[in-house]
Specification:
Blueprint (H helix, E strand, L loop, with lengths): L1 H30 L3 H7 L2 H10 L5 E4 L3 E5 L4 E5 L8 E2 L8 H11 L17 H9 L3 H20 L8 E3 L4 E4 L6 E4 L8 E3 L5 H15 L15 H24 L6 H16 L3 H18 L7 H23 L6 H4 L7 E17 L3 E11 L2 E11 L2 E2 L18 E10 L12 E7 L2 H7 L19 E6 L8 E3 L4 E8 L2 E8 L5 H11 L6 E9 L2 E11 L2 E4 L20 H22 L6 H13 L3 H9 L4 H17 L5
Parallel strand pairs: 18-20
Antiparallel strand pairs: 1-2, 2-3, 3-4, 5-6, 6-7, 7-8, 9-10, 9-13, 10-11, 11-12, 13-14, 15-19, 16-17, 17-18, 19-20, 20-21
Helix pairs in contact: 1-4, 3-4, 6-7, 8-9, 8-11, 9-10, 10-11, 11-18, 15-16, 15-18, 16-17, 17-18
Length: 657
């Protein structure tokens, strides 16, 4: 019995010692949370309220899994193996609450002389924390962040400019990343104790991104790679199968006849959409979903059904699938513009003070809208879109934001957003939960602070675009050229100088840009502007800028909004060739109607039908359509390719003024 009693007593002593050691570690962790760390975890107001809750009446209880703190009307539980900021509170507040902060404050001021200090005997300085993080092994980071989170961080760090990364702190290390990414504070080198602000559904990936950002700023080479570099063989094979299936399905539907499609065809398109989403071909998936909806509408004889629209959708599926196959067969990386991106997830970024740079219109008679462009700084330019027409139905002009008015009302104004949400692609959410406050008109000083310098033009392509738009504010230097119109490309061109470089301002003449074309002609005739705002791209060795607004005479003139006519006696507006575009549009419409009749018929197109169509396209000045059809004269592929080319040409053609 004596030996058993001794064993029991030894076991109790060991348990008490382990508990005291864990409690000491928890108390040591709490002492690292100074007021600045608490404010980074929440905000100053919440910290003030938390301190008012801390008094001598709080009770501490030690259990098997952790400790509990109970005040007059609050209870917080801290686990042994969890960071303090992941404590559990019984209140209904989502995220960090004042009770959790009060518990941390109580623990950091808690004194128990009977317990020896455990864990870190002293707090490390910011330099020491930074040194440990820099020496962190690649394998350690990948093991901690897991493969998916590490891959996410690697993709994001490639698009972040080192100049946009902020490092601060004398006691702790704080890494500030540009929106929409969170800032991360390291109280110790332990990654689990890092504080992410604002917190998200997966803070582990934010910590991994902050580590990579620190390495980038300190010149450490990142040997961490996204997987093994190339896509896994299984994924490439699955993508090839899906794209081949997509191309075959589109041709089969044409041979069946668009007016003869039924439930089974809709199910095939739905199945294709699911398969494409499974192999991360999001663009193909969305196109298949839209085509399936249209097959449903045709079967139900809905007034919104249109076999011409379905043909356009199928032709885009076929062309995208064909382009994907070509890249996959050559072992090349599929660009985001072709594979598509998963649906944007918006993260809260709190308050933003922005400058409205203008907006532009897009779309056609079926789906159209406007996109506003707003800037926080020269390197932080965001956009927010608002549809104005869906399936021909006109929608209200008002923004979704409370207090914002219309999209056009944001141009040339200071805009303060509360409860703002931002996606990884730099798009602001148009949710009604966002509150906007419109301030004074912006002036020259605002645009000078946003003036772009350096050459980082983005490439752009409707089918193969890989980079995000590179918005810029250019300060115009001296004289500019007369504005000209190219009747072949249907494009306005205006040459100016900025930052010592020649910039070609180009604006395509089409229905959605009609107002912008007229305004640019009018403003260009009055003399050089002070600033021009738009999207940069490169063509050969020069710079191109697609404009959305000009700063003229102390006022920002948004090109997409009607501008008053110049006073009588002002310079006349240059004449744009209107007769030729209207004629070309009518020919394109006739060719498109011929293609629709062939697609509706429900039979394999004959060689004679397609060659006659190719001949007409050539005689009307469309050799590219002639070539596309002639290459596959007896195949439904010819119809799909021709329909795609007509779409591209039709979008670029204007309507009559």
């Amino acid at each position: 019995m004596g030996s058993q009693g001794d064993a029991v007593n030894a076991k109790k002593a060991a348990s008490t010692e382990a508990r005291d050691s864990r409690l000491a570690e928890l108390l040591a962790q709490a002492k690292r949370y100074d007021d600045s760390a608490l404010e980074h975890l929440a905000n100053k107001g919440l910290v003030r309220r938390a301190k008012k809750l801390v008094d001598g009446t709080a009770e501490l209880s030690v259990g098997a899994t952790g400790i509990g703190l109970s005040g007059s009307d609050w209870t917080v539980s801290f686990g042994w193996d969890l960071p303090l900021n992941q404590a559990q509170c019984i209140c209904a507040t989502a995220g960090v609450c004042q009770h959790l902060l009060a518990g941390i404050v109580h623990l950091r001021d808690y004194e128990q002389p009977d317990i020896e200090a455990g864990g870190l005997e002293r707090s490390l300085s910011a330099d020491e924390i930074r040194r440990v993080l820099l020496e962190l092994g690649d394998d350690e980071l990948q093991a901690w962040a897991k493969q998916t989170d590490c891959r996410w961080a690697i993709r994001r760090i490639a698009s972040i400019d080192p100049d946009e990364i902020g490092l601060s702190g004398t006691k702790h290390v704080t890494i500030e990343l540009p929106p929409p990414y969170a800032s991360v504070r390291f109280l110790t080198p332990l990654l689990e104790e890092a504080i992410v602000k604002p917190p998200g559904p997966n803070d582990r990936r934010s910590v991994a991104l902050a580590i990579l950002a620190l390495w980038l700023t300190q010149g450490r080479e990142m040997s961490v790679q996204e997987g093994s570099g190339a896509r896994p063989v299984e994924l490439v094979a699955a993508r090839i199968q899906v794209t081949q299936r997509a191309e075959r399905l589109c041709q089969t539907l044409l041979i069946t006849g668009l007016l003869h499609l039924g439930e089974a065809d809709r199910e095939k398109l739905d199945s294709l959409a699911a398969s494409a989403r499974g192999v991360k071909l999001y663009r193909l998936s969305i196109l298949a979903e839209r085509a399936a909806d249209h097959v449903d509408a045709l079967g139900a004889l809905s007034p919104e059904a249109d076999s011409a629209r379905l043909l356009e959708q199928l032709s885009e599926i076929a062309v995208v699938a064909e382009a994907l196959q070509a890249l996959l067969a050559e072992g090349k990386q599929v660009p985001d513009g072709l594979a598509g991106l998963a649906r944007a997830h918006y993260q809260p970024v709190g308050h933003l003070d922005l400058v409205g740079l203008g907006h532009y219109s897009w779309g056609d008679d079926r789906f159209a809208g406007s996109t506003a462009v707003l800037a926080e700084s020269a390197k932080r330019i965001f956009s927010v879109a608002r549809p104005r027409r869906v399936n021909g139905q006109i929608l209200p002009e008002a923004m979704g934001w409370q207090g914002a008015g219309s999209v056009s009302s944001l141009a040339g104004r200071r805009v303060s957003l509360s409860n703002a949400q931002l996606s990884d692609q730099g798009r602001l959410s148009g949710s009604e939960s966002v509150t906007a406050s419109l301030g004074r008109q912006i002036g020259r000083d605002n645009l000078e602070s946003l003036a772009w310098s350096g050459e980082r033009p983005a490439s752009a392509s409707r089918l193969l675009g890989q980079k995000a738009p590179n918005w810029a504010v250019l300060c115009v230097e001296g004289e500019v050229s007369p504005i000209g119109f190219d009747s072949i490309t249907q494009e306005l061109e205006w040459v100016l100088w900025s930052e010592g470089q020649e910039v070609h301002v180009r604006l395509l003449y089409r229905p959605s840009s009609l107002v912008a074309v007229q305004n640019l002609e009018r403003l260009a005739s009055t003399g050089p502007p002070d600033f021009v705002v738009g999207r940069l791209s490169s063509r050969g060795t020069g710079l191109d800028l697609w404009p959305i607004s000009l700063f003229v005479g102390g006022e920002l003139c948004n090109l997409a909004s009607p501008i008053e006519q110049p006073a009588e006696g002002g310079a006349p507006s240059p004449e744009v060739s209107g007769e030729q575009p209207v004629l070309l549009v009518s020919h394109l419409d006739r060719l498109s109607a011929r293609l629709v009749r062939l697609a509706d018929g429900g039979r394999r197109p004959s060689r004679r039908d397609l060659l006659l169509l190719a001949s007409e396209a050539s005689s009307w000045g469309f050799p590219v359509i002639d070539g596309v059809i002639s290459k596959a004269p007896t195949d439904a592929r010819g119809i799909l390719r021709a329909s795609w080319v007509i779409q591209l040409l039709r979008v670029s053609m204007p309507v009559s003024r």
